[in-house]
Amino acid sequence: MARKSSSILVILLLVAALSIGLLIDFDNLPNDDTTDPTDTTTTTTTPPDAPPVDPFPGSSEVTLVYPVDTARLNEFLQNVRSGGPAPDGIPPIENPDFVTAETAMDFLDDGDIVFGLAYDGMVIAYPQSILVWHEIVNYEINGKPISVTYCPLTGSTIAFHGWLGDGSNTTFGTSGSLVNSNLVMYDRKTNSYWPQILSQAINGQSLGDGLQRIQMYFTSWGAWRSLHPNTIVLSENTGFIRDYNRDPYGSYADPNSYYNSGSPAFPVMNEDDRLPDKEVVVGIDVNGSQLAIKKSDIRDWQVYNFQFGDYKYVVLYDNVLDVARSYLSRVNGQDLTFRLDDGEIVDDETQNVWNPYGTSELGNLPVVANMDAMWFAWAAYFPNTDLICSGCT
């Protein structure tokens, strides 16, 4: 059910402007209440100088298994709504250019939002000011197809391996459609629809297949650079004419902007008033089980242990990046439980001290990708999600 038809009209005008590159001042909108290729292969752009090395590589990610409930997937398909633009009307970036951290200082301030990726030895920052106009970046890292995605309507960023269920490679485009006010991607091999937060195909030849997620970090440029001084950065040289100094949705720093206040821009399938719509949660989706933790609470707690089925997991807070990192709580076949002890992360079983990057003398915890998202969107996709927050019922 739509929250407010006037809100939908405003956002329709806004996303249409995104697709043609017009600059819109969000605060003054009417208020009545060219290039990885466009097919299935990609071309690598050589980064400047030597590629940066991730100093906190951790171990491989946990492989996700997606339950296939065709009735549920069809329900998502029936709730697809046009966002306004045509397919790729909000144009993904293909063959991205990268610049050094020093060069990026010319267009990034310390407080600017970036989405950080540390994958397969590469460390890359993607400015939110660029991604808000494009939503997807397709390219390869060491021969592996990767798609970095961001949906401004739900505040969610996650990367995906460009591997389909049959093992073939693809890139992704913006469909111009939404589910639960969230970006719906399409793959360029089968044209199947993939809602970003769901990460699973809801139609077509890939119906029921799921994408393997890669962790992205929603942080600031100053914080990312302090942890990764040799990072490379997505360049503003995208091949498109856009004003990357302006955000058409407003500012994350403005409490009255779209990002921080008001209702979803488009109808959602489920509403949950346990938190405000735009409250940021850390969402974890593993093999059919979901958990959302209020981000401000995990920031205070620093450590949170939980269990899905027979497996134990932990969320550790990284104070440098101001992000949550999540892991499978198992090393060398041993399950672990963590606690904060006089400011240090310690496991109960061996008394080893761990850092928030999931490493200790015992080894590395397997990474479980999570994502920051607005509460309304997470609850709309996953109405049975567990919610952890102070004062929650």
Total DSSP helices: 7
Number of domains: 2
Principal-axis shape equals: globular
Biggest sheet overview: 5 strands, mixed
Number of strands: 28
The rounded Rg comes to 20 Å
Rounded average pLDDT: 87
What topology emerges from the helices and strands here?
Blueprint: H1 5-20, H2 70-78, E1 81-82, E2 93-94, E3 98-100, H3 101-104, E4 113-119, E5 122-127, H4 128-131, E6 136-141, E7 144-151, E8 156-161, E9 172-179, E10 182-187, E11 193-195, E12 213-214, E13 217-220, H5 221-227, E14 232-234, E15 280-286, E16 289-294, H6 295-301, E17 303-308, E18 311-318, E19 323-328, E20 330-331, E21 334-335, E22 338-341, E23 344-347, E24 353-354, E25 359-360, E26 363-364, E27 370-374, H7 375-381, E28 386-388
Parallel strand pairs: 2-6, 5-14, 16-28
Antiparallel strand pairs: 1-9, 3-14, 4-5, 4-13, 6-7, 7-8, 8-12, 9-10, 10-11, 15-16, 15-27, 17-18, 18-19, 20-21, 22-23, 23-24, 25-26
